[in-house]
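Run log, item B.
One chain of 99 residues. Sequence copied directly from the ordering sheet:
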Amino acid sequence: MRPVAASLRTLVWTVAGLAAVVGAAPARSEPAGAVVVAAAGPDWPSLTPAQQDALAPLRRDWAEIDPARRQMWISFILLNFILTYICLVIDLVFNHVFI
């Protein structure tokens, strides 16, 4: 397999794995006319160990952070991991293909 194809395949599997590990929110469907009540957001013990490590600076204030901001921080972590791995794979591809 060519290095570029192998690297791209690695990128796809890495992104899929990170989405599963970090905890992408599952899709929900509500019945027509249903009233959706905002959830309290994930409390600290319900976060995965990886999420707790990444959010450690916010631990002391986590209980006071509103649910929308909690979800924003969790989404930010997922995006950060994905972008980091994309950059690593791109670097790997360029180092093997152009050097």
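Observations after the first pass:
- The chain is about 60% helix and 0% strand.
- The two ends are 18 Å apart (CA to CA).
Flagged for discussion on Thursday.
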